[in-house]
UniProtKB/TrEMBL annotation:
Leader sequence segment: none
Annotated coiled-coil segments of the chain: none
Alphabetically ordered keywords of this record: DNA-binding, Transcription, Transcription regulation
Name of this chain's protein: Unannotated protein
Taxon lineage: unclassified sequences, metagenomes, ecological metagenomes
CDD domains: WHTH_GntR (cd07377)
Gene Ontology molecular function: DNA binding; DNA-binding transcription factor activity
Amino acid sequence: MAFETTESVDVDRQSSPEMIYEHLRRRILSGEIAAGAELRQLTLATQFHVSRGPVREALRLLQQEGLIDSQVNQRARVRSLSTEEAEHLYALRVVNEAVALSVSVPRMTESDIDALERLVEELARTHPQDFAEWERIHDSFHRLLLSHASAQTRTFLTFLAQHTERYRQIYVSDSAAAWRMGSAEHGLIAAACRERDTRAANVLLANHLARAGLTLVAIMSPSYEPEMLRAALFQVTNTSQL
């Protein structure tokens, strides 16, 4: 299935490959351009008012990031969702976000924690079918939670979070009960931060991410055994101090 759109996008011709890449990347990660969709160079060149050269470069960047598959003399397609990739993304998040949180909690200000609690309240009021709004608030919560980690760490964790966005839509939309549980878990994490209980916050965050990942894997492939994700959770929750 080819990705078709009548939308016209204005870009700066001098930086068009990067801008085309960012535009397509955002739409792929949000699920607006679905897994398996075909990306035709001529269609995209028309949409962005550029020649095929900048489009080819943008597609190369998307392929380099692992978001599309493209072979010589073949059309590019958005990569299919993969149970293995979903597991690996969540396993990396479990370990690395727990470490980042151990740095962030002692440095949080009262304003930071007040803001976390407001975001928890907003999440609780958001309907799971309004995924765009839920994702905006959810992203703000996790960014603020880890805001005192190093810039390099935050960049890496943002990359992981963005790549799990395509998968989170499955998880959030498939189970209202899971969505409500996730909302409650955000509240517990914020409460642990309020108490400056770094260890409790680490374990709560690790369990929160692992539960989301395990639920997602079970939805996508019930027979798949997520050994890496279970090992990541064990690493965090059974370590006396991070």
